[in-house]
What does this fold into?
Amino acid sequence: MSRSLGSRLLLTHALAGLGAAAVVAGSTLVLADVPRGDPAGRRLAAAAGASALVATAGAAALGARVARRLQGVLAEMARAVDALARGEPGRRVYADLPDAEVRSLARALNHAARRMEEHLEAAQAERDLLDTVLDQMPVGVVYVDRTGAVARSNPAADRFLGLSPADRGRHHVEALRQTALSGAVDAALGGRPARVTIRREGPPARWLEASATPGHGPGGGAILVLHDITEARRVEAVRRDLIANVSHELKTPVTAIRGFAETLLQGALEEPGDARRFVQIIDAEARRLSDLVQELLDLARLESDPQAIRPVPTDLARLVREAAARLRPRAEEAGLELAVEAPATLPAPADPRRIDQALTNLVENSVQHTPRGGRITIRAQAIPEGVHIAVIDTGTGIPPEALPRIFERFYRVERGRERTTGGTGLGLAIVKHIVEGHGGRVWAESRPGEGTAIHFVLPAAGTGQGAGVLIES
It folds into this structure.
């Protein structure tokens, strides 16, 4: 009852929220001018009050609903922020509220989540790329953390050092099992780069060049890089052997020529019998020297000139028969039978001059190492891969341990007989390069005391066969 206005007042409040968090969502004020003692006025005031109460209750219910939605959105925002803190940006906030500030905050959180997701995806892509590069590198890489434990290695390093997943987390001394490598790693952990070369026993045996450098990232540690130099070592050894062999092969005939020439100049010319014999020796050694120089030049050209082999349509059966006819007198002079087993025709793309050269080298090699009364067979036949040609003898054979090396330059199975057989030591090396130059493959089979067979296959037209040497015993 308002004494100043002489009217009845009804004031109601609508609360939003629950408990201590409840706030006033709205108020309803009903003012009625009701004369004292008027029954109709009192009924009207009561009805107005009831209406006000209903309106207030509705407002309270609506406010409570809005408050609950707001609380839900705020809770979702809190969960989204927690997810961002954990590096999980996949959660999104959906704020379907009329409040512009709340919607703006939700959009900002979602934008931050998207940006973090993009950054994480980019970082993951970089890590995946780094993993791919490391996995495909032919160079071995080992990362040792600041505590000295092997933290990571790529497949090449695992292969070089025999590492397994069980070695991850072990101290490098235990995991690497190489004193020199561990010393280099310790130096790098101390801030000093180090380089060592080690031989790791196989199988297969490897020569490794290792470089250890300090890690400059926040994690520190050391990075060990391994290069397999086994092939480089082998090539260097072959180069040294080649220089030594060439020097020896050139020196021998030159020494003989010079010695007999000096003997002739010192008076042997006056002895017709001796003079003739000495001149014949000089002539033979000069021819041998000429053959050696020519074969060295020929081998160099086969190795370096792609045009050294020029295949044309060729009947290899006819080529084999013609080569046998030309070489048969040489075999018969050594007391050997030379036979041919071939069909009427064997068409294939080949360089006739080079294949004839290969057959000549193989037959002459068999003549030199087959005792009198033996047999040499040239066999040619068509196979699905192309044309298979073999030169088979009944000679002394080759020991199994020597088979892998017979196609090397200047290699001789028995060093003691190198002067008596008359070869240059380059014949089989030239055969290998001729066959490989055709895209074919060559291999040897032999049993000591029973004979040797040198096989080679020339690919048929349109087949891209890879070159290679296959040794069988």
